Amino acid sequence: MSSSDGNLHVALLPSSGMGHLLPYLRLAASLIHHQLSLTLITTHPIVSSAESQLISTFLSAFPQITQKKFTPIPLDSVAANITDPFQLQWETIRQSAHLLSPLISSSSPPLSFIITDVTLMSSVISVTAKLCLPNYILFTSSARMLSLFSCFPSIPSSIPKESLPPILLDSNSSFTKNFSDNSGSLKHFNGVLINSFEELEKEPLKMLASGNLTKGLPPVFPLGHFLPLELERISLLAPLKWLENQEESSVVYVSFGSRTAISKEQIRELGNGLVLSGCKFLWVVKSKVVDKEEEEGLDEILGHQLMKKIENNGLVVKEWVDQWQILSQKAVGGFISHCGWNSVVEAAWHGIPVLGWPQQGDQMINAEVIEAGGWGLCMKSWVKWQSKAQTLVRVVRICRDLNCGRGRVFGRIAFIAVADITDAIAVITGIAVVNFTLFIVYCGY
Ligand code: UPG
Q1: pLDDT greater than 50 at residue 386
Q2: Which of 15, 19, 151, 315 shows the greatest Cβ crowding within 10 Å of its Cβ?
Q3: Interface confidence: ipTM more than 0.90
């Protein structure tokens, strides 16, 4: 990498978790085409195998990108009172942010600017400000979430208080404290890059651009959709082969992203619900937050009886799959998703209706983007899967042969899940308006 060519030299600082890493690498690959020199700062030890594998495949595919390894001072999870290993990694980086200073200032040629993950903002800005290094954020969630983030602890009128993750209502939690500190540091950044686009989030983007939402909000650049890289196609082929033999729009794809673990009991509940729905399904099961800890086989997780029942209806896997390719298959007619932002954007891009089942964090707010666009329906409350009686797989309603005439993201198949009877009535009323044909397949009331 030489400074004599006059190129900009940009450093990328992702935090942790595939949901944060993937958009970084997708952005990095697109920046390469703009003749930028790039440095990727990777934090060690890396939390999940999925991240380690992706980083090494990425760096082999792009040898022109420089890797700088950052090793923060380890934090004790008990002392830090953080159980989630990805959040612990964010906090570890934050507390060692001062160690980034020599790493950044030793870059050659000198850096033109850095792009920092949203989870690290307030701790990294103090380092880069001292070095007079411009700092941009890659906000890995929705523009709708950014509108909340930019005002926090105020809540914009467009966002119902109930959509906030319960943890943000606890002002003493370290998550809330970091969220608030990061939000407060926003005005010191040079800009916000976001994986969204106008057709998907017209109103939130307009509101952010208007300047009325937050004083001093830096410019927001909607750069989405970030396209996946060829090198991401490292995963299992079985799901794609299985999908090739299924009828068009007949399969529900079920996945809760890269870091949402579900207990064995809840997995079995969900499995029984899917079998009872009578719908074909492709289901990615995840019983541990971090993939390295996934030791049990599917037989042990699901139990022999359920495995047998599933045989005729669907395909279940527990390995990393190529979600982008799956969503692009004709056989996939719908997506039961936790509404992680990457999944939402990928579903929108492929025109797949979503049944949203938010689990934590930004996911309820992301789910509202789907509903506002009219291409899916989502659970309206943070009901947790706790017991058989409370299971959320109460209602899977499948509306077939839909044609509400709103373009390519609609009209194949839609799903409705509701947590209680009031929601059910609201949904049915909504459906009557757009004249869907409704089949109630499974109701656990
Ligand atoms: N993916 C695969 N194969 C798998 C599982 C996931 O390709 O087997 C991909 C998927 O296509 C997507 C990404 O991994 O690109 C997962 O990202 P996302 O859908 O956003 O889910 P999470 O991994 O849960 O993402 C975290 C948070 C989420 C947040 C997101 C971005 O849980 O709430 O919106 O990060 O900040």
Answers
A1: no
A2: 15
A3: yes
